[in-house]
Amino acid sequence: MRFELFIAARYLRAKRRQAVVGVITAISVIGVAAGVASLIIALAITNGMRRDLQERLVGSTAHVDLMRVAGDGIRDWRPLLARLRALPHVTAAAPGLYGQVLISRGARSGGGLIKGILPDDERTVGNLLQAVDEGSADALSNPTSNAPANEQAMPPIVIGNDLAETLGAKVNDTVLVTSPQGELTPLGLVPRYQRFEVVGIFKSGFYQYDSSYAFTRLVDAQRLFSEPDLISVVSFKVDNLYHADRIGQAIEAAAGKGFQTTNWMEQNRELFRALKLEQVVTFIVLALIVCVAALNILIALTMMVMEKTRDIAVLMSFGVRAEQVRRIFLLQGLLISVIGTVLGLIVGYGLSWAGGHYRFIHLDASVYSIDYLPFAPRVMDAVIVAAVSLGVSLVATLYPSGSAARVLPAEALRYE
After folding, report:
1. pTM value?
2. pLDDT tens profile 113-157
3. From start to end of 51-187, where are the E strands?
4. Is there a contact between 50 and 375 (Cβ–Cβ < 8 Å)?
5. Are 182 and 82 spatial neighbours (Cβ–Cβ below 8 Å)?
6. Residue 342: what pLDDT?
7. pLDDT beyond 80 at 334
8. Any stretches that span the bilayer, and where are they (predicted)?
């Protein structure tokens, strides 16, 4: 062990008459540990929120959507769909017909976004149909859907879990779907409506989908909206979701004039920007805890220099250089910071692992979009937090270590 490190470690073990210095040193270690642990947990939460939201958004919806610029829907869509499926980087494509509707059951009702789909194609671009935990989505693949409306059974529908709770609906119940796109009669515009049988209830864990989304067969949606053989969107999965913008531009160019694309990054840009800003602000605020701990280190070392003035003078009279004295107190502050940082990393990662594994903190999904608090600690966070902690603590040691180096042996020992 180097001479300076040996003396620094020795000074940390305060004697009984220096108990106040020892208490302040312990408080400094605890302060650094608390600041580091708080930073690790806060960064793990923001990373977990971003990761879970991104996974659920990307898994539940398509990477790229193609629509008409005028918004009047896509006709003669089958040749277009076949041509776009063959484009490079496109792994799957599915047609869909969206429409805002009112879904009711008895006296209870709720607004919803119904999507007419081809189930086999829809499963290749989104996983909401795989998230059915009550009933089954298999009825959406019933080939009798092409039969005339007066010759077939009640059409099936799959709805979100929160929407089902709003309606008080269960599997095999009947709901009334009303479309604002009605028929013009002598009495005015009469909304169109159709009764559907609830065959499945999905639960994605993402409130936006669970509270408003519903799926039915494409032909049933076309009948409800009086739009035969029309779709409103073609959804795509691509081989690299982070290049969805460039691939979307290629799809738009291949589709021709009058089409435009959006991608998952554009649709959720504000959400991820808010999460990033929250992460930065949280880091700055909680870093103040480390700064407070650094002030404790400054106070502890200043008091240590005052207590050890005679010892410093004796060391310097034995030939110890001023640079070595400065290094002693620099190393002493660094030891406090290292011990606190290591303890903070252990506590922070331990609590983050427990929170992510057991999911014991639940959230209101209607407010936070997910129903539990996710944790996703990263190694890079530990590197950044440790660097900040050690850097701030090192700055705090500059003044007391400089004061120790300026001690004059003759003046310090004059009255001893």
Report:
1. 0.70
2. 999 999 999 999 988 898 898 999 988 886 554 444 444 578 999
3. 64-68, 74-75, 90-105, 108-117, 132-135, 156-160, 174-185
4. no
5. no
6. 94
7. yes
8. 20-45, 280-306, 327-355, 375-399
User: How long a stretch of residues is the chain?
Assistant: 416
Say which range, 16-25, 44-53, 323-332, has the weakest mean pLDDT.
16-25
Those residues whose C-beta lies under 8 Å from the C-beta of residue 282, and which sit 6 or more positions away, are 42, 43, 46
Question: How many degrees, rounded to 5, is the angle at CA 47 between CA 42 and CA 49?
Answer: 95
Who contacts 110 (Cβ-Cβ below 8 Å, separation ≥6)?
A: 102, 103, 104, 163, 166, 167, 211, 212
Q: Which residues contact 416 (CB under 8 A, 6 or more apart)?
A: 310
Tell me how far apart the alpha carbons of residues 257 and 393 are, in angstroms, rounded to a whole number. Answer: 61
Cβ proximity of 397 and 301 under 8 Å: yes
Alpha-carbon span 260 to 65, nearest angstrom: 8
Instruction: Give just the sign of the alpha carbon dihedral 91, 94, 100, 101.
Output: negative
* Mean model confidence pLDDT for the chain: 85
User: What's CA 118's distance to the chain center, in Å?
Assistant: 31
